[in-house]
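Re: that chain you flagged

S.,

Sorry for the slow reply, it's been a week of failed gels. I finally had a moment to sit down with the sequence you sent. For the record, here it is as I used it:
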Amino acid sequence: MAANPITDALVLVTGAARGMGELYARRAVSAGARAVALWDIDEDAATALAADLARSGVGVRAYRVDVSRQEDIVAGLERVRTDFGSPDIVINNAGIVRGAPFWEHDPVRDIEGTMRVNTLAAMWLTREVLPDMIADASRPKRILNIASAAGTLANPNMSVYAASKWAMIGWSESVRLELAAHDYRHIAVTTFCPSYISTGMFEGARGPLLTPIMTPRRATKAAWNGMLRGTPMVLRPWTVKLSMALRGVLPTRAWDVVADRVFHVYSSMDEFTGRK
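Prediction finished late last night. Pasting the C-alpha cells below so you have them in one place:
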C-alpha cells in the first residue's frame, strides 16, 4: 500500500526500554506515529524513555509487562487500548539468550524462560491484536518479528536460543501466508534475522568469517525499512543468506566442516559471556 504505515499509527514495542527496542521507539516517534506504547519488565527505564520521547509531543507511555506471562500480555494490551486504542504496528522485539551446552540449561529458568520470552510472547501478543488489525482495513498494519540468524543455522552453545528463533521464523512466515491466503493484504508480517548485534546481549561472541558484529542502529534501520515495505524476511548481513544457501546444498557433514573450519560459525560462541 502506498500510505506510510507509521503516520498517525499506534506503535507497540516490546523490550522497549533499551537497546534495539529503544531505537525502534525513537524511529516511530520521528516517523510521525500518533502514539507509542513501550513495554518492558524494567518499568523505571521504560518510564524514563517515555518521558524523554514525550517531549516531541507524541503520546508515549510506558507499561510494565512481563511478556513471559500471557496474563500480563492480555492485561497490558487492555491498558494500551484504554489509553490509545488498538495497535496498528507491533514490534515483537523482547528477547533473552542463554549460551551454554544444552545439558547445563536449567529446565525452567533457561529452557522454558527462553521459549516464553522469545517465541510464545510474540505469538500471544500477535494473537490478541490480529482480530482488530483484520477488522480495520482503512490503513496499513504491520507486525515486525525479531528472530535471528541462529534460527536459520544450528550453532553450538545456542541450542535453546536457536530453537526459540527457529520456532519464531516458522510461525511468523506461516502467519504471513495465512493472512495473504485470506486476502488480508493490508497487514504485512516481516521477520528480521540478524547475526550478532552489539547490544551487550551477546557479549563475548565473535562474528563468523565476513560477518562483522552489527551496530544496533544498522540492524534496526534494516529491520525498520523492511517492515515499512512489508518485506517478508530481512536477513543481515549478506553472509546469513549465503550460509543458508550453502547449508541447503551441501551434505550435512560437509557443511559442518565449512561452518566450523572456514566460516568459524561453530566457534563463534566459545567466549560468550552475555549481559551481566
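What I noticed first: The radius of gyration is 18 Å.

Talk soon,
D.
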